[in-house]
Write a structure and sequence with these properties.
It is built from eleven helices and nine strands. It is α+β, with helices and mostly antiparallel strands and 236 residues long. It folds into three domains: 2-39, no CATH class; 49-90, GTP Cyclohydrolase I, Chain A, domain 1 (Orthogonal Bundle); 101-234, GTP Cyclohydrolase I, domain 2. The protein has a five-stranded mixed sheet, sandwiched between helices. A two-stranded antiparallel ribbon has the order 1-2. The longest helix has 16 residues, at 167-182. One of its GO terms (biological process) is tetrahydrobiopterin biosynthetic process.
């Protein structure tokens, strides 16, 4: 009976009572196409990334050579290391977890009106072309006896924007993180981004902006609540 129960748990994506993403259980090939991982398993981290600096520097040096450049000339001597350090900074969100960032900044409060923080600056890296996209994030939630320190909303944006991303997934991850932090009645997130992969390459449309949203709980189910949030976000 015990063996059968353990087998059923593995098939259902649980082990020792804890959820696990099925992509690892099924093929061990990582989380590339795993919706569970990207949306819910928020605290996954790769190995210590500073250890990757020498290998990344060598890779950038090889890239320069492949472009026909001389990586030994004066202007490029330190470029591989600088580029590697920059990429580690651009993706530092992989080293951060929701638990570390929240750091006990959840407070019991009998507040049942909407909380909105808007126009949070965001910088991220397109996972398709490894070029930046940037913009602003607006977050609203309707508390249920708990509130979150306001600066923590901006820090949640940093966790997930400082990774290789697509804007659609980034928007959803922010909403799910706020939900996980304070279990509110609902969460709404709107992200407006400018993607350099559309501006400096490809179609080269310099005035294009991409807007994505995620509505959870009452923001999805109640049109009036959603409208109130959008009016607050769009007000000057």
């Amino acid at each position: 009976m015990k063996d059968q129960k353990e087998s059923n748990n593995r098939e259902n994506g649980t082990e020792n009572g804890k959820s696990r993403c099925l992509c690892v259980l099924s093929n061990g090939n990582g989380h590339e196409k795993c919706t569970f991982h990207h949306d819910l398993e928020l605290d996954h981290r790769p190995p210590t990334r500073e250890d990757l600096l020498p290998e990344m520097s060598r890779s950038y040096k090889l890239l320069l050579s492949s472009l026909g450049e001389d990586p030994e000339r004066q202007g490029l001597l330190k470029t591989p290391e600088r580029a590697a350090k920059a990429m580690l900074f651009f993706t530092k969100g992989y080293d951060q977890s929701l638990k570390d960032v929240i750091n006990d900044a959840v407070f019991d409060e009998d507040h049942d009106e909407m909380v909105v923080v808007k126009d949070i600056e965001m910088f991220s890296m397109c996972e398709h072309h490894l070029v930046p996209f940037y913009g602003k994030v607006s977050i609203g939630y309707l508390p249920s006896k708990k509130i979150l320190g306001l600066s923590k909303l901006a820090r949640i944006v940093e966790i997930f924007s400082r990774r290789l991303q697509v804007q659609e997934r980034l928007t959803k991850q922010i909403a799910i993180a706020v939900t996980k932090a304070v279990q509110p009645v609902g969460v709404a997130v709107v992200v407006e981004g400018v993607h350099m992969c559309m501006v400096m390459r490809g179609v080269q449309k310099i005035n294009s902006k991409t807007v994505t949203s995620t509505m959870l709980g009452v923001f999805r189910n109640d049109p009036k609540t959603r409208e109130e949030f959008l009016n607050l976000v769009n007000s000057k």
